[in-house]
Write a structure and sequence with these properties.
Elements: H1 25-32, E1 37-38, E2 40-44, E3 51-55, E4 58-63, E5 66-73, H2 77-85, E6 87-92, H3 98-104, E7 122-123, E8 129-130, E9 136-148, E10 151-163, E11 170-172, E12 175-177
Antiparallel strand pairs: 1-11, 2-3, 2-6, 4-5, 5-10, 6-9, 7-8, 9-10, 11-12
């Protein structure tokens, strides 16, 4: 957890806030379910093995150099493998790939959980698995990893990208969805 006193240049008046209780977990999870998030498969491959996991927390960090971040639960075997392998790939799923999300979330009724047999994959420059028909893929070398509560924040320098097009798969209110353009109402 980031504490105000550990942030360089943080105002002194924030120091007393670190002792305040956190929001109720269930209320927080319920409120966050209203956030529309992309659905992504983060993969890694190397000496620690080949792993993949479904994640929703992905963001651009920098365009110069190109960097991206992804948050992975520290209990996931993928988190330890990313640290050991030093590489990862973020695959942004298309709206027809919900079944792949389910496999890497461990809740598929068709495929073995966390099994790469659910789709055709290609190896990126890092060796991590790239999903060719994903909306986009970002093949990365690990630059930094930070603990944040139950998760690890992985920051990767992007070595290669692929853009497959299509409509992205999103998640909101605990269901899959796909964004659509709004009518601007000329």
């Amino acid at each position: 957890m980031i504490r105000p006193s550990t942030i360089e240049g943080a105002p002194r008046h924030l120091e007393g806030m670190r002792n305040l209780p956190a929001a109720d977990r269930e209320a927080f999870v319920n409120a966050m379910s209203g956030a529309v998030t992309s659905v992504n498969i983060v993969t890694t491959n190397g000496p620690a093995g080949r792993y993949g996991v479904t994640v929703s927390a992905v963001a651009s960090v920098s365009a110069d150099p190109p960097m991206i971040l992804s948050c992975v639960n520290r209990r996931s075997p993928a988190a330890a493998a990313i640290l050991a392998n030093g590489v990862f790939c973020v695959n942004l799923l298309a709206d027809h790939q919900a079944h792949i999300s389910d496999v890497f979330a461990g809740r598929s009724e068709i495929h073995e959980p966390f099994s790469f047999a659910c789709a055709e994959w290609q190896a990126g420059a890092t060796g991590s698995a790239i999903l060719p028909d994903a909306v986009a893929s970002f093949d990365c070398v690990l630059e930094a990893a930070h603990d944040a509560g139950t998760h690890k924040i992985f920051i990767g320098r992007v070595l290669g990208t692929a853009a497959g097009g299509g409509r992205p798969l999103a998640h909101c209110r605990r269901v899959y969805c796909s964004p659509s353009a709004l009518d601007k109402g000329d």
